[in-house]
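Retro notes - structure team

What went well: the batch runner handled both jobs without manual restarts.
What didn't: labels got mixed up in the shared folder, which is why I'm recording both outputs here explicitly, each with its sequence directly above its tokens.

Job 1
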Amino acid sequence: MSHPTHQMFVHHKIISRKRLTRSVDGLAYVVGIGGNIAVLPQILKAWQSNAPGLAITTWIAFSLLGLVWLAYAILHNSKPLIVAQVVGISCNLLVVGGWLYQNYWLL
């Protein structure tokens, strides 16, 4: 039989770890969504002009790499990473779509 103080300590550690996990998960959602806000100027540039300085292959690569991370997140049931990747891939594809629209579909 374990000592009652030891049981309280173990129970307290479990609660602290759960609280820490919730906090880090919450932060991951904020960073995963908020971090992609930095892409908004590129999205606007891609849709408003032919964006001559835009490296389209980079944005396509970001999208493909994001798909790998999304598969990983789904397999590991990591909801914050799933959300972050869906938002990131969407932003990357918006850049690619805007560039294609301006450079090929408006000709």
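Job 2
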Amino acid sequence: MDGSEVRSAMIEITEVRVSLRNDEKLKAFVSITLNESFVIRGLKIIQGTSGLFVAMPSRKRPDGQHQDLAHPINDATRKYLTAKVMDAYERELVQPSEHGRSESHSYE
């Protein structure tokens, strides 16, 4: 590629693992695998004042603020990630697995 070509490659979430929690606000811990090659752990499903939302992995800074360690940088990716995670969470609520539900896609 010489730079004149534009390549658009959307990440694919190839696995979602949900670990349910019995807590008023923290509903689940989630791990996702991207393109069968990169895992992000520490996502959370939180019950907020206006409903459930997916919180990205974060750390607490010395000033008390939380800073995301990894996060989508565009709206399309955020919507895709949220939809995949919430879908896996809803399935896990209906039929809990022993170690957290795993959603995988096979490649041919």
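One thing worth noting from job 2: The longest strand covers residues 38-48.
We'll revisit the folder naming next retro.
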